Structure formats: C-alpha cells, structure tokens
What we know:
Layout: H1 3-35, E1 39-40, E2 50-55, H2 60-70, E3 72-73, E4 77-84, E5 95-98, H3 106-113, E6 119-122, H4 127-130, E7 134-139, E8 142-147, H5 149-154, E9 158-159, H6 161-166, E10 168-169
Parallel strand pairs: 2-4, 2-5, 5-6, 6-7, 8-10
Antiparallel strand pairs: 1-9, 3-4, 7-8
Amino acid sequence: MNMRKLLLLLVTMLLMRPVLMAQDEKFKALFLYNFTKHIEWPSEKQGGEFVIGVLGKSPITKELQTIAEKRVVGAGQKIDVHEMTLSDNFSDYHIIYITDKYSEHLESVINKTKGRGVLVITDKEGLASLASCINYVKVDGKQNFEICRRHVDSQGLKVSAQLMMLGIQVD
C-alpha cells in the first residue's frame, strides 16, 4: 500500500470514529428504553413521570431525550431525562445510568438506592458482577449487556425471564 492510500485510510478511520461512537450511544439509549418493557417497578413508582438520570456528561442524554419526546413507559408514564449530580436524591429516579467516567461512584449510588426501585446501569467492564443491575459491553464489536438478577432483585425490581435470556447473565 502506498503512502497516499495509507494516509487516506487513516483519515477515513478518524472521520468515521465519531459516527460509530454516536451510533453506540443510540443503541445504548434504545436498549435502556427497551429495558423498561421488561422490568417491573414497585407500585409506588408506577405513577407520575418516569425519571431517568445520567450521572456524568454523555451523548446518551440527548439520545434518551429524543426517545422521551416520542415514547412513554408502561401505561402512559411520561419520561423525564436529565443529567444528575452526586447531590441529587437518587431514590427519585427509576433508572440511573452511570457513565464510565463516574463508575468510581457506583458503590455510593448503590448505597443510596438499595431497595428503592432504581435500576442502576453502568458502562464499564466488570461492574455487573460488582454491583450494577445492567452493564453495557461489546461482544464481537456489537453492543450487548450483562445483567445480574441478584442486583436487580436487591433494588426491589422484578425482571422478566425474556430480558434475562437476552442479556449475558452474571452473578
């Protein structure tokens, strides 16, 4: 391969990277929304707005807000999506997505949400077996997720057998 072709290939790869990363965020947002169809929240969380918090800055926030404009959860709960901070009342949320940059706060999030009907989703290798309910992973270059029934149960949530079969089960 001559130098010119190599340079063209490198430039193309660099230009495609943001497109591929944006595609990953869309898939993660769609996965997250679809999780709501397979998780049963406690009765006290089945009314009012369905609140999704993103801990840390992430393009997934915009993707989730786009979904929230068009869709609802369950029997008509409007979706409210926003970036959250460590000082928020974590039990007000239905789902908390922790970006990989904030993953060191997972234990704190779990301590503030345990048994309060909050689905904790992470995006860093090994966190589903550590404490999160669902963790995004890539398998053979494709977006997938790990799920830990024990952690879902500890949050007071019920997960469908179908979602358990779709994900990679960890203990």
